[in-house]
Every structure is written in structure tokens, then in C-alpha cells.
Amino acid sequence: MPVRAVRRESGRSAERAPVEPKRPASLDLATVEEHDLDHEATFRRLGFVDLDLSGRSADAVEFEQCRLRGTDLSGATLDGAKFSDCLVESSNLANLRVEKSTLLRVRVSTARMTGVHWVNGSLRDVTFSQCRLDLASFRFSNFRHVVFEGCNLSRADFTNADLGGVRFTDCDLTGAQFSHAKLPGTRFVNCSLAGIGGVTSLAGAIVARADLIALSYTLAGALGIRIEDEDADPDAERT
Question: pTM to 2 decimals?
Fold first, then answer.
């Protein structure tokens, strides 16, 4: 039976572009002295520019209509955090550890996010553009109207994540893990899918025709199917 093309409206979660952050008319400039991270701190309409906030630990921090540019949050721990209507640009979030946290109407671009640990969180109306997200973990997180474009997601971990309607475009997902993830309507366009884990969890996903060949080899391996050259002699003795 031939494989039929999937209509664009397929999937449990209707596909649409993420809503852009609501930008304030103006921003005050944040300083480490006055706006260092602390438990239950709330930051509104602030510009965090070239600040070193690495290694900090704070719970229930809120960023509303803020802009982070060139900011270093590497190695920080921000459990229960909320970012809403924020822009994050050219910042260092490597090995940031965040649990039970929210991204709402956020755009992240050209950020270093290697090893970021965003577990059991919520991401809604979020765009990741040209970000380094290799070895990132999004286990048990819920995604709605999220786009990854031009990102390095090699060996990223989406185990048990709900990725319904997410779009991956021009992304390197080599060795990424999707075990027990939900992917109804998730779209992969011009992505590297070689060696992904949990490939049988991709039921309901939409894959561009050009990406299907690499994915078919991974799927065959997961199912124990041996792929044989058409010109090979099956009776030939192996050496």
C-alpha cells in the first residue's frame, strides 16, 4: 500500500507560528548590584546586557518583558522560574539547570545552551533560532507552538516530553533521544535524524521526504531489520 502524503492540518495540536513576545516601549538597564538573582525576585522591563550571572541559585524568579543580551547564566540553577515576553540574544546558558519552569512568548537566538537542563517544564509560543542546544535535556516538558530553526540539537534528550505540533527546521538532531515522547503533528524539515533514539515514538510525526531515507535506516535498526544491497548475493559466504 503506498504511503499517502499527510495534510498540513494533521496532528492533535493545530500548527501555527509562535506568538511573538510583547515588547515594552522602553527598558531600564539592569545592574548586578541592583538586580542580582535572588529567591522570588521579579524583574520587569529590564535589559540585562553583558552581565555575569553565572553559577547563581534562586527559586521562583520571574522575568517579564525583559531582554537578555550577552548575559552569562551558565551553570545557574533557577527552579520554578518564569520567563514571559522576553528576548534572549547571544547569551550563555550552558549547563543552566531549570526544573518546573515556564517559557511563555519567548524568542531565543544565537544562544549557547549546551547541556541546558529544562526538565518537567512548560514552553508555549517559543522560538529557538540558531542556538547550540547539544546535550540539552527537555525530559517530561510540555511544548505548545514551539519552533526550533537552525539549531544544533545533537544528543538532546526529549524523553517523555510532549512535542505535539513542534516544528524542527534545518536542525541537527543526530543521536537525539525521543523515547516515550508524544509527537502528534510534530514536523521535521531538512533535519539530520541519524541515530536518533526512541524512533518508534515518532508515530504521528511529519517528516520531509528528503529526511526520510536517513530515518528509515534508524527505524530499521530499531526493529532489527537488516538492510541488504540489491546487488549482493545473499548466498555468498561472508568473510
Answer: 0.86
